[in-house]
Predict the 3D structure of the following.
Amino acid sequence: MPENKSLNQSVNLEAPKIFIETYGCQMNEYDTELVRSILSQSGYGESESLESADVILLNTCSVRENAHNRVFGRLQTLNHLRKFKPRTIGVIGCMAQSLKLDLLANDIHVDLIAGPDSYRSLPHLINDSRNDNTQAASIDLSEFETYEDIYPTRQEGINAWIAIMRGCDNFCTFCVVPYTRGRERSRTLESVVAETERLVAEGYSQVTLLGQNVNSYEIASPVNGEKYRFADLLSRVADIDGIRRVRFTSPHPKDFPNDLLRAVNSHPRVCKHIHLPLQAGSDRILKLMNRGYTAAQFLTLVDKIRALMPEIILTTDIILGFPTETRADFEDTVRLMETVRFDAAFIFNYSERKGTVAKRRWKDDVTLAEKKDRIITLNNIQRHISHGRNKLHIGQILEVLVEGSSKRDSLDWYGRSEGNKMVIFPRTVQKIGDYVNIKIHSASANTLKGAVV
């Protein structure tokens, strides 16, 4: 099991203590690990609680409305902690980039903000805010920042995230990422390989490669000038001794290269699971979203993937209630979902995001009642599909990576299969981080259950 890395292992215990809360996606989880490392190198410690912290940072997300609303509510709560001792409260990440003026408003009382490309400046921002009692901000976007020279300070876990690139060039009309994280730029292959090798030395056997669109990864080697694409990187990481599983997220359906499919299919350590965000099944809505493919093209890609890898696990993302989405558009999405039969789907209602093309061009005209009806309908359909897909595993023996105790019964372990399916089984002599073979005897829409063989 990987060793626990704490800021307090490398700094003076009397140093100012930092507490970080993380909201949103896996990239934010990784960014928090980068921030821990940057602050540790500048002499900051890590607080185990809000109450003892001298500096509280919220690492934020602008993609989902829930994360957005939670942060504003959390800031109101955190300001009450100032009554007990002076402390600095900051917002970092995507919301800092997109909502600077709102966050610096007097009624919220934020001391500092830093965008995703400004984490190196955090020690100075914190110092300025603490010593000068002024609001400090840095939200400049960079064409070059990848943080590849910073090794993240990770907390104890089973999976290690590795950001292989930053930013996005796709400009989907509903998405704020290109405006909060900037344009695409890839890390060198050598830096990703070196980080993975260091993770193996620390005890990690599973890594997940992160990018807004990993298909777009491309970099020339500083050593020999050779160009590498994502399939090259994926294979190189999976070749590292000590790695058992390599995952990645997310590819884009519009430009899924054949060499990547071959890498997933041929390498035994690359997990046979592809998260393929669909977003909508209506060609009209896909065009308004600027997704770059039609429903027919998406189905062709799915057919190609399954022809090469019949047992592949496919999951997806769906946005319902996009501006002007009619009931007929929604039914197109339903039909496509029933045709593809994803193993799982993350289904969200559309919500406006400041700075996006969709907010500028179209009114959010699908009523809340209609959105609610559509999300309930599609979730019920997907639950039925997921249950059917999961029942196919009954009688199979799956290798499962043990992640922890089941929330429902402490006598059970939970873990994940290579296909990222949640598996519950009775605990015996195994420990967290072990790989065990489980024979599946029952299935629900969300989990598989079995026993060690």
In short: The first strand starts at residue 17 and ends at 22. The first helix runs from residue 26 to 41. The mean pLDDT is 92. The CA atoms of residues 19 and 56 lie 5 Å apart.
